[in-house]
Q: What sequence folds into this?
């Protein structure tokens, strides 16, 4: 897939503010500081489509981008953001929960995992919640350029073992690096293949 256009649509604070759309949506989410904004910019080949910040948890709204006029990339707030006030954090978590549980035209959720870290409890808990909610998802391991191939493979093996304790069948997995641009083609090909079978559903 070649990205010919990437147009910001809207930032929504909650589900009711999300745009009505018949386009399939591919949502990206991960623990704070996992490299989500850098990955989104890599996929779109736009340097500042998603704002990259050194401050974890910068994304607080649900951001919608129309890609090639035929699908929507959804940038979700990262889970695990701890610096907001408790009331703000509760509302922010509820907006993500409502979107994932109730948005009808989600084609797939990409769960971003930091490949340089051992399995994190918060990631495994979130995956278990997605699995229990019946939301289609795949795993996307980021920052793979920050370690050797052997080390990365070892990390992935450990994560697969931890994940196998939650579910018998492992989801599809991708590896990526915003710096080396690895994984971009595979991710976009997956989206293209998904579009072929994703119905247009009014949200």
A:
């Amino acid at each position: 897939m070649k990205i010919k256009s990437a147009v910001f649509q809207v930032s929504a604070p909650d589900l009711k503010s999300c745009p009505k759309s018949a386009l399939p949506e591919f949502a990206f989410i991960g623990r704070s500081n996992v490299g989500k904004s850098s990955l989104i910019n890599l996929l779109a080949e736009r340097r500042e489509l998603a704002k990259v910040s050194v401050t974890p948890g910068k994304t607080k709204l649900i951001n919608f981008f129309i890609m090639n006029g035929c699908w929507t990339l959804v940038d979700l707030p990262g889970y695990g953001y701890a610096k907001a006030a408790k009331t703000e954090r509760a509302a922010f978590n509820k907006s993500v929960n409502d979107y994932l549980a109730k948005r009808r035209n989600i084609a797939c959720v990409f769960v971003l995992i930091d490949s340089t870290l051992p399995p994190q409890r918060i990631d495994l808990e979130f995956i278990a919640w997605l699995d229990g909610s019946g939301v289609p998802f795949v795993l996307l391991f980021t920052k793979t350029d920050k370690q050797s191939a052997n080390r990365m493979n070892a990390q992935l093996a450990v994560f697969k073992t931890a994940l196998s304790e939650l579910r018998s069948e492992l989801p599809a997995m991708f590896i990526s690096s915003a710096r080396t641009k690895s994984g971009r083609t595979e991710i976009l090909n997956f989206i293209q293949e998904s579009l072929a079978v994703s119905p247009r559903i009014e949200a």
